[in-house]
Amino acid sequence: MRIHDLLNEAFLLIGNLQRAAEFTGKGDEVALWQHLREHWNFTVTAGQVYVFEDYLAGLDPARTAYVSTAFNARADAMSRQTMAMLLRTLDEMAEPERKRRLLILIDLLNFIAATDQQEALARYLKDSRSDDAPPALAFFDTREEADTWLNQLAAPPSYGKVMIGDEYYEIWFSREDNIRELLHDSVMEYFLEDFESKALPPAAASFNTREEAMEWLANHPASPTSLVIIAGERYHAVNHKKFNRHTLHSLSRLKEERAKRKAELAQQDNVEVEPSKD
Question: What three-state secondary structure class fits 61?
């Protein structure tokens, strides 16, 4: 079975067991399952699926201990509580397939410790809870530059986002099929939805052209976003501190794209499947 399938099955098990803990009023366990979910999210969204697969391949099949020495040496208190819960659950579980998924989750905790990524995980959690725009792995002016970069990587991330101009693109890499693609990502539409749940701030400045706005932003960085007006149109100016660059996102265009996407999804939901003529 492919590693993505294994991880997806393990993720579904997290959800099932977390809901069971909620139903029985075990609030402490709910928090621990959520902690484990964050480890899963970090591993997948940081593009480390194949790094994790290689870690699993390097484990001794004859090992007798489920918990690694690295975990015992480096894990924080909450991760230790999560590991203890997983081991209890493993002892109580009879179904072999579910036990296999639990072992994947146990090794996910071991993996973070073995690769010494506790600080990276903490930064990921902090960023995911902030108002910052989704992080990007790289920034390009043109699609050709981005494609060249991706094709020249010896080991591309299994997932991640890059910026091409003002647009997000999602990396899709399948090691099994040697497929490398950049797919347009609508993440800014969802970022807009979250932003619109709050009152829009007043515009920081108004400009006649995009060039004027970018020159001003270079000396007045958005933190992390600012609202600016260009030729009467409102834009989110987003500061990508890692690259010392800004992107500009038209609010009206984002709203149009979001409305179009919702209409397409609604149309798909309403499509009736024609009965078979066989």
Answer: coil
Let me know if 204 is exposed, middle or buried by CB neighbors in 10 A (0-12, 13-18, 19+).
middle
Amino acid at 195: F
Distance CA 189, CA 198 (A): 15
Q: What percent of the chain has pLDDT over 90?
A: 69
How far CA 272 is from CA of 250, 263, 267, 268, in Å, comes to: 35, 16, 10, 9
CA pair distance 43, 28, nearest whole angstrom? 23
Structure tokens at 264: 């397409």
Phi/psi for 238 (5° steps) reads -110, 130
Please state the pTM of the whole predicted model. 0.79
pLDDT tens sequence across 26-58:
999 999 999 999 999 999 988 999 999 999 999
DSSP state letter for 139? E
What are φ and ψ of residue 120, in 5° steps?
A: -65, -40
How many helical (H) and strand (E) elements, i.e. helices and strands, does the chain have?
11, 8
Residue type, 213: A
Residue 227 near residue 203 (C-beta atoms within 8 A): yes
Nearest of 28, 52, 30 to residue 109 by alpha carbon: 52
The enclosing H or E element of 250 equals strand 245-250
Largest Cα separation within the chain, whole Å, is 69
Q: What are the phi and psi torsion angles at 236 (to 5°)?
A: -85, 125
- Alpha carbon distance 158, 175 (integer Å): 8
